[in-house]
């Protein structure tokens, strides 16, 4: 589903944000991407979403070499990808319901079906009562849940989520994680970037650890503690 071969990403005037990263995600996996602030987590998600291009190395998405598909094909590729960005990227002049409906309109789903699905999604993130509000009038946590609902709306083959529980209280965190787990159980491949060690401990999934742009471990659980503090085991 996602293959990176020796991928390096350098932003102009900066050291490498990602360095020689080789990583493969299979269809149906649920993977946490973790590491301290600045480790390169968001950069990796941006590469996979084709928002940025690798400086060197190869990236294959759904078996296609991203460097070779051309800019025009990118929107088609993205139709298979749901994404929750750190800054949500909700459209401020559209209501909550309209934001969630957008990816379904792109799929040309009938209006009646869209209304049904949007209602169901907003209910699942506890925001039915906010359907007609505009995103700027919502709290950060509410906007985050709208972003999750929008990302899951088209039942994407791949879901990329950058700190999707970053603004949520513990109860909402569990709800959002359950939505991601449910989507995964229905076949969506999920890649979640998070600092939150409690999530890694609670959900025993594959954990890919980045430090200063390098992939330093990849396994069933984290072998080294991200960020400050003593290492949690060897
Ligand atoms: N657009 C950009 N231009 C220049 N440098 C950037 C850009 N985006 C990220 N960087 C740099 O790349 C490195 C990796 O950043 P990235 O946002 O990928 O890390 P992260 O692990 O997601 O961090 P955080 O957990 O704080 O979101 C950092 O040193 C950052 O300053």
UniProtKB/TrEMBL annotation:
Keywords: ATP-binding, Cell cycle, Cell division, Cell membrane, Membrane, Nucleotide-binding. InterPro entries: AAA+_ATPase (IPR003593), ABC_transporter-like_ATP-bd (IPR003439), ABC_transporter-like_CS (IPR017871), ABC_transpr_LolD-like (IPR015854), Cell_div_FtsE (IPR005286), P-loop_NTPase (IPR027417). It is found in: Cell membrane. The keyword Nucleotide-binding applies. Gene3D superfamilies: P-loop containing nucleotide triphosphate hydrolases. This is Cell division ATP-binding protein FtsE. PANTHER family: CELL DIVISION ATP-BINDING PROTEIN FTSE, IMPORT ATP-BINDING PROTEIN. It is a peripheral membrane protein. GO terms for biological process: cell division. Signal peptide: none annotated. GO terms for cellular component: plasma membrane. Homodimer. Forms a membrane-associated complex with FtsX. Residues 2-234 form the ABC transporter domain. Part of the ABC transporter FtsEX involved in cellular division. Important for assembly or stability of the septal ring.
